[in-house]
Amino acid sequence: MNNTRDTAPLVLGTEKIGKLLMRYAIPAIIAMTASSLYNMVDSIFIGHGVGPLAIAGLAITFPFMNLAAAFGSLVGVGASTLVAIKLGQKDKDGAVHVLGNVVMLNGIIGLIFMTVALLFLDPILLFFGASPDTLPYAREYMQVILAGNLITHIYMGLNEVLRASGYPQKAMAATLTAVIVNCGLDALFIMGFGWGIRGAALATIAAQIIALGFELHHFSREKSFLHFQKGIFGLKRQIVTGMLAIGLSPFLMNLCACFVVILINKSLKTYGGDLAIGAYGIVNRIIFLFIMIVMGFNQGMQPIAGYNFGARLFDRLIQVLKYTIFCGVTVTTIGFLAGQIFPRSLIYLFTSDETLTDIAVEGLRIVLIFFPVVGFQMVTSSFFQSIGMAKKAIFLSLTRQLLFLIPSLLIFPSIWGTIGVWMSMPVADAIATVVAACMLRWQLKHLKV
């Protein structure tokens, strides 16, 4: 492992960009796609095994998932960065203490989140857009998910540390294990035992328990580069504040995403009813799959762009940017074509209800109008982050939601109803892409090639 660490930076500055990008991006794409499939599987089995209102109930829980992801990234992203820094400084003891603090901090946050959410579950779900018809489904699902929230947080945190400590393949294996187990248990619990939406939630938590067991086994072995030791579980202010400071940016972005989903659900409930919310849940799952693939390419680009920017190899920097933009736009263009040419086939994966299908088909086609340019916008934002310009990256991410999407959601539905809700998303994408293009053009002009 040490030899790999010693030679990897040199390779980043010398090897062919296309080959490098694929080497770094493919594992990330697999992990990201697996994460997306994790959520899709629940939706597919719930749609066919329970019904259209259950799909709507599941969509109501999306803000909860955004909140969980927000707190998970608050600790996980900060932990992975700190571990990488400590290892780069040859401070293995410090990295081991980060490992211990990840377990404790995720445990504390997970318990608090679970307790507060379970105590006020019904009022929260009603605020998220639940109706008397969808509330029972959303409640059943979230009661189980929240009961296992401690497992979820620790599993996510340890997966980040596993990846940062030199075991990306094992981190990917843990994620894939969870996905495969979840698929099998969904079929068994929903179709076999008839446990409904609660069965989907039980399958999710059971899969995470197995994946967490895999991670705990790794970190319990003394042969592992970082492993559990006595005295590492006491919270240290410097480590905790460091993790939270680094993780604040993705936390805020996920928090903003949570607020946006609440607005969408509420608008769809007002102008389209429960099935419109269910349709959004399906559309969101389909689009998210392509988004996660682009994020995988972005993760592959980041170390290459960061190294070559630091080494002032601007020709290579621009080259990797062009390659990644091409890959990102290709992925989102494929998503656009699939959604426009055979949307009904995609929707049928999730439901056989014709009314829900008709609503989802209309929504999918509208939302995907400007989807090809979304790949460009996402890569540009990640590019700024890769070269150390985090403020510009955050600006691009937040402006799409705060400055463009939220005002559109507040204005368009009052004029065009449900179609206005759908239209607000591609309009925000288009404006955000124009802003990203202007910022990127300005930045490239100021690079001293």
TrEMBL record:
Which Gene Ontology CC terms are recorded? plasma membrane
UniProt keyword annotation of Cell membrane present: yes
**UniProt KW Chaperone keyword:** no
The GO terms this record gives for MF are: antiporter activity; xenobiotic transmembrane transporter activity
Subcellular location(s): the record lists: Cell membrane
Its main localization is: membrane
Spell out where the chain crosses the membrane.
21-41, 53-77, 98-121, 141-159, 171-193, 199-219, 239-264, 276-299, 320-343, 363-384, 393-416
* GO terms, biological process: response to antibiotic
The UniProt family comment states: Belongs to the multi antimicrobial extrusion (MATE) (TC 2.A.66.1) family. MepA subfamily.
Q: What is this protein called?
A: Multidrug export protein MepA
- Provide the taxonomic classification: Bacteria, Pseudomonadati, Bacteroidota, Bacteroidia, Bacteroidales
